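Please check this one:

***
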Amino acid sequence: MFQSPSRKRFKTLCREQGLQSRQVLDQLVDLYVASQGAVLHGPGHSIPPSPVPLPEETTSELIERIERLECDDREFVHAFEVLIHRVEALESRIGPPSDEPKHKPKP
């Protein structure tokens, strides 16, 4: 089954880790079957991990945080528009700076 040096290293490693070699072999067989042999082809060819189900509270927390961010973004845009309007009002009263053109909002 194994070449002698590999078998010795395998048994030594199992012993060092406090495992029985038969148990390790059984787990390797299970892994090989579950991956349909892809485990031998390295990480680039392995089966994708199963998605981890999130608890309901975590999902609702994430949704709440996203909604807050969207709301904050809308508030930021509104505040920025107010500032632009105020700058335009000031420029119309005192005139634009001599070295810069007047601000023109996008349509």
The two ends are 76 Å apart (CA to CA).
